[in-house]
Amino acid sequence: MPFQRFFRFLQSYSMRIIVGDARYFWRTRDRRAPHNLYTSTFLLQEAMKARGEETYHWEYDLFRFGEPPEGTKASDIKIAYPGSYAVGYHYDATTRTYLHEMGGSPHVDRISGVQLSPTTVMVLYVDYEDLGIRDMAGELSPDCRVVGSGDALVFCAGMVIPARWEREDISRPILFSLQDGSEVAIPPGQVWVHLVPKWLKVMYTERTEAG
User: Fold this and answer.
1) How far apart are CA 107 and CA 105, in angstroms?
2) DSSP β-ladder status, 72-73 and 191-197
3) Mean pLDDT over residues 70-74, rounded?
4) Would you state the pLDDT for residue 2?
5) pTM of the entire predicted model
6) What is the percentage of the chain residues whose pLDDT exceeds 70?
7) Residue 34, preceding bond cis, omega within 30 degrees?
């Protein structure tokens, strides 16, 4: 069964898995299964306590927040995912955030109607591996390799900063560094990370007054 194979795959990373207990999940009727299943941090912590396992917090920061280094101006970003999955960002200098688009349309919060807009967008070029596992719709479930190192692009403050990413172990954070080896600082705020196949095009340009 595909689920059993995926379950064993998760176990190989020593992940704590909660399955088969409806007390810690809920479904909505506005979407088709399996895309209508939800949980919360509180419920997951309660599930861990019920199993006699300790909850824990990260002992390190995931990102270094501060004044970003100088980069090249880049206000428009396009990540060429296929079809309606294509991603776009437009930098808003007033809010200092990136307005997010999906399939050429603004990506808005369903409740507030406000367009989603992270402060920083990070692109990691990674390798993908075919696990040979298909979901209920028959689609392949690839695994992206996020242990090791590779090239990265950091978009913040209307700039693009070429960088490198590195991760020693699955239990450690990903580090972002400049060519001189120093860690990349980014502005405080929401951070979105894209794990992009090495062959996929990521385009960025500076918007002109006419554009």
Assistant:
1) 6
2) unpaired
3) 95
4) 56
5) 0.84
6) 93
7) yes
